Amino acid sequence: MEQDHTEMLRSLRFTLAFVHCIMEIAVSKGSAMDASEAPDASFLQQQSLVADQISLLSREWSYAEQLVLYMKTAELLSSALHNAMEGIKQGKLFPSSTVKQVVKKLNELYKSSVSSCRCLNVRLQRFFVHKQRLMDRINSITAEKLVYSHTVQMVQAAALDEMFHHGEASIQRYHKALLLMEGLSLIITEQADISNISKCKLCIERRLSALQSGLCA
């Protein structure tokens, strides 16, 4: 029973860490959107209708990406909370103070994710009333693709840090990228994708091992 408790708590903590990383990606989508909306003198002078439309589409696309990411975190958190409750009922997970804290945090993030989903959905519904074609395109977005793309960019940034001898920054990026890849491997189903992620994880682990053993300056 002690082993069941330890394993379930480890799984809950991993979900918490994985969800935190996904939510950071969602926040970055919003930050990029805010930066793109900064006033620009030439833009204000032109008052271009085309530019207005491009800016609007860019903003709504960011909303859509954020929405699918928060939907994924809500799904993961809901599953984790359900498993925790079932584990406690079955006596496999002991309701210790640590477990209660983890479950409380999972519940808080779940409520936050649902709230973000509702807010973003309202914004998008107003925009897409007459934009069905673009809506069809946005429906093709998946949280898994967004997380994978972000993780690949993170690995590339880590490699640059490594190249310029920023060892600590490189290690931090590799660790977070490894966590994201590990999380993805638990939720994807396509065998080809699973294989690619396994290869990526192996490469990241090798770089971390080299950096941490001091083989790289």
TrEMBL record:
One Pfam family hit: ATG1-like_MIT2
Residues of the ATG1-like MIT domain: 139-213
Keyword rRNA-binding recorded: no
Residues annotated as domain Serine/threonine-protein kinase Atg1-like tMIT: 22-127
Domain of life: Eukaryota
InterPro entries: ATG1-like_MIT2, Atg1-like_tMIT
Keyword Chloroplast: no
Name of the protein this chain belongs to: Non-specific serine/threonine protein kinase
The organism of origin for this protein: Synaphobranchus kaupii
Keyword terms, alphabetized: ATP-binding, Kinase, Nucleotide-binding, Transferase
Molecular functions per Gene Ontology: ATP binding; protein serine/threonine kinase activity
